[in-house]
Write a structure and sequence with these properties.
This protein has helices at 2-6, 34-38, 49-58, 75-83, 109-122, 144-163, 171-193, 200-207, 216-232, and strands at residues 62-67, 97-104, 126-134. By secondary structure, the protein is mainly alpha-helical. A three-stranded parallel sheet has the order 1-2-3, with helices on both faces. Helix 7 crosses helix 8. The chain is globular, with a radius of gyration of 19 Å. The two termini are 35 Å apart.
Length: 234
């Protein structure tokens, strides 16, 4: 419904792909910490998470949804979030417009929205809209007439986020960006002094020149300028 309605807000062809727990096979994070040291998750080779990550990186915007199970997000949603944890230090999704929708029959909608939203923002997304629908109030979430108010809010916000993703970067996100940039730069210097092998986190931070930017807004602005330059090149 969102994809169909969004066509009237963004005057460009819209192609989308929906992945649910029924479509993918996911293992849980094993806390091996390989992602922090090597930059890769060994579990990606055995399930669909590698494919999901690639699709997230290629997508122009993200729509993350989950029902409320036992007062929190679903197991599938949590597995995805946990397997993306190391991306929080790398700003892999910096400036990507996103929305979060949670459905609940009664309670914990607000808490689950906040839980998912916090994680996505630490990944760098420009979270344009986040909310929940209580099916006790909305008899059928599959009927467009019942979802029309939410659809309009979501599409309006995503269209705005598409035009101006920097607008939706929060002070919390910028503070986190600077924290990691300084921490990894400090570690880079220590590694050089003592001739140590740098972790993937340090190498990526150095390669992407995080310390060059005073905040996440400036980093995203630079990414957007590079993207526009690439698109304008024949």
């Amino acid at each position: 419904m969102v994809a169909d309605k969004l066509k009237s807000y963004i005057q460009e062809p819209i192609a989308y792909e929906r992945l649910t727990g029924a479509d993918v096979r996911l293992d849980f994070c094993r806390s091996c910490e390989s992602c922090f040291s090597t930059g890769k998750c060994p579990a990606d080779a055995g399930d669909d998470m590698g494919m999901i990550k690639q699709k997230m990186l290629e997508a122009d915007m993200l729509f993350f949804c989950s029902p409320v199970y036992a007062g929190s997000m679903s197991a599938t949603a949590k597995a995805v979030v946990d397997r993306l944890a190391y991306w929080c230090h790398r700003e892999e999704l910096a400036g990507k417009p996103a929305a979060v929708l949670v459905t609940t029959s009664n309670n914990h909608g607000k808490e689950t929205v906040e839980e998912i939203s916090d994680t996505l923002q630490y990944l760098g997304v420009s979270l344009a809209w986040a909310g929940f629908v209580c099916t006790h109030d909305h008899p059928n979430i599959y009927l467009e007439e019942d979802m029309e108010p939410e659809l309009e809010k979501i599409c309006t916000a995503l269209a705005d986020g598409w035009q101006n993703p920097i607008k939706y970067i929060t002070p919390k996100q910028s503070l986190t960006f600077r924290y990691y940039a300084r921490m990894y730069n400090r570690q880079r210097i220590i590694d050089q002094i003592f001739n140590l092998k740098s972790s993937a986190e340090v190498l990526i931070s150095t390669e992407r020149e995080f310390m060059k930017y005073k905040n996440l807004q400036d980093y995203v602005k630079n990414l957007l300028e590079k993207k526009r330059a690439e698109q304008s090149t024949p």
